Amino acid sequence: MTLPYMEAGKHTITFHAVSRYFAFTRFVIYTRDRRENSLGTSLGKKTGSQKLPQNFDAMSFAHTVYGEEVCALLPRPVIYLPLQPAGDSLTMEDRIIQPSCYGTAVRPEQIVEKSRTVFREKDGTLQIEAAAVLAQSLYAYTINGTWHWCNSPAHGETGMAMYMRKAHQHWKDDGNAPALCYQIQLTGGFYRIWIRMLMWGDDTSHFSIGIDREQIPEDALYGGHRIWRYSNEQVWKWIPVCELPLAEGEHLLQITALSSHLRFEQIYITKGEELPPAGESV
Fold it and tell me: Smaller CB count within 10 Å for the chain: N or C?
């Protein structure tokens, strides 16, 4: 909001809680043009590029601000949608794994560096950091729009995820929607593709998957079950989005956003029945 003209001196701003469970961490008053927040700075209006985050010791910061107790807290749980949901959007059916310790922190450069070569399957699995597209290389790149990164929970809360920043945007699955693209090399077989993501609500949870420029429609993902449900809102979850046979050789994997604000953190492709790791591999 824009505040009215105020005289120099002391003023009081009061926040009234109208709804239950409302919380916020801070507010900012800008006396000049608005600046971007701490999740990244858009450098150019034409490119919308962002600086990579600087090294930041989040645990030391939390220890200083919140005290000894916060450092003893366990990491956030890793949540997986079930392979065969019951279909009730009000039922919590997820499998939840509680890590015993925080993962090893990574530098943004380590994530981006993985895009310098094709992403290769090893021992029947392949894991991709979504933010590898920041390199805009031959093997990881974006199309049809300006993507931004944000912080994510993997690697001891030093992970990065990709999203379309401008709210209330929607696209059709017609080849013109913004997409994240990855060149992958497989040994061939029947694969399950998992994606770790965060969604804010039904209006911001729409996407599709493409293999070699052949799109899998949104309503065919997750075995035709509805991905969004109330229990999926505002938490990071691993979702088994599709199962399909893929031939040996290179393929183009494409994640297409059909609505903005949906955040993509990691992709896990496997021939097995195991769950993806708890977000710590790079």
Answer: N
